[in-house]
Fold this sequence. Notes:
The chain is mostly beta strands. It folds into 3 domains: about 1-45, no CATH class; about 70-245, no CATH class; about 260-350 and about 370-569, YVTN repeat-like/Quinoprotein amine dehydrogenase (Methylamine Dehydrogenase, Chain H, 7 Propeller), CATH 2.130.10.10. It is about 5% helix and about 50% strand. A hairpin with a 7-residue loop joins strand 11 (about 150-160) and strand 12. Helix 1 (about 5-15) packs antiparallel against helix 2 and helix 2 (about 20-30) packs antiparallel against helix 3. The longest helix is centred in the N-terminal third of the chain and has 13 residues, at about 5-15. The protein is globular, with a radius of gyration of 26 Å.
Amino acid sequence: MEQPAAARLRAGAYLHGSVEDGAQVQLAARRAGADQLADRLAYEGGLPWSARWLLPVEESHHRTIAVLRGPVVALWTVRGIVGAVAESGEYGVWDLDTGDQLVRGWGAGKTGSTSAEGRHVLAAVDGTTLRLWEAADGVPAELDRLTLPIPLRSLHAVTPAEGDPLLVGIEQTGYVDDWSGMDSTVTGGETRAWAITDDPPRLRDCPPPPRPGEPPVDTRQLRVSVTARAETCLLTGGRDGVVRAWALDEQPVPPPVPLASPAAAACATRSDGQRVAVVAHHNQRVGAWDLAEGAPPPTVLHDAHDAAGVACVRPPGGPLLAVTGGLDGRVCVFDVDAGVLSRTIVMPVVDPLPGTGSYRRPGVAPAPPGPEPVRDIAATVLADGRPVAVTIGGLGWLRWWCPLTGTALGAVPLGQWGRAVACGHAPFVVATTGQDLQVYDTTTTEPVITIAVSGSETVWALDVADDVVVALDGAGRLHRYRLANGAPIGEPLAGHYRDARTVSCGRHPDGRAIAVSGGFDGTVRVWDLLAGEEVHRIPMEHPVYAVALADDGAILVGTHGGIGVLRLH
């Protein structure tokens, strides 16, 4: 199946739901390639931005059944029916063969099942209360509830081909000490089961079923939440909210760059003039996307690198280089023009920060220390023409590297976990451990100034525009400071109402200095840095993990389940 066809399928899945939300309709139309329809429906043709291309995160060897908002936490199938519940509370039931929606709504259910009579039910535990609902369009109708002597730590549904559906739960385990403190009694930990029987359905205690074997593992789609096996296919509920069907007898060949949700991205222009976005995906693959057409990369730059940060740099007279820093403790340097890995730098082994570490049982030897994980990376060209890459590590070290030779140029201990790092055109590098901004001279590695960030929220992302450093905190607020003296530029700008952990600075097509941020509230926001105002708010529906602003005003957006480019007018 080609990408346009996959986009149409995904759009159809979105349009099965309510069409009252203009943002949802707009996104569905854009994923189907109907940009003009989206403009007319959502903004009546007055959009200050439009989608250049927007593709779902889909491989070509499976079928999309449906899309829910948030990770899928429960999935079941019986007699040609498939049902799913998302972490957000949205649920649905579909015909497995046709994909037709039978039921869709919102509720508190965390698992579900389908009875022989075709009744679709949901269940959840609220403290010591087990509740049962009938799935219906809109709000579910409560059917029954039971009081439990001990809370459950897990609950799942069993849908046998014959007989009543079952709910199976495992009690929480507690330890009760006697008055002397010398003895204790273990309570709970038992497996309990309830049959969903009668009409309307009710809960009835019954013996638990035999303990099942290990659930099937879908090696073709590793990042799934839950799986279910039908007669003709394997169903997966993804962390991106997508319910997929995989043929049991099919052995697909993975594409060069499977389209997993992006972890980080950076935009640049190759020597042949093609604008690309180097994207590190959550499935540990790195590829260079064509910003103009949205074509998947013909080859993968790396297929086993858990990259957390990406930066691009071009030495004078040299090829375009992309440097990635990963949680695996490696920095990879790629020649983007040639599409090859040029060099790998392994981070030094360092001692854990004081007061940190991991628990190990008595008598168990500690694991040997490994290279320091890289949390973020930035790159720039010094005044003398030398390229430099700066990494910030999870164990509190800021390091300078030459990407051409892999030589270490300097290191500074920060004393806390590293969060983010950014380089500007001026000879400064800015790093943060979450509560303040530490500015260093890029050439000498000497400290220049420490900027105190207002508020108590942790800073998660940084970038630099001209002489302004932009910091994005966990509350979605945008902070602006002068690099020269650390002076704040106005008050923090309130924007995202949930976590926001990606920001990119550059120029608007009209010349203004702007910052683009993405948040877990499912929006991309464009900020005028000097005016201190939000210019655009672009709905993406899913959490946004990565944004990267190109020099022509194009914005690469990596969402929880999609990747695309928006164009500012």
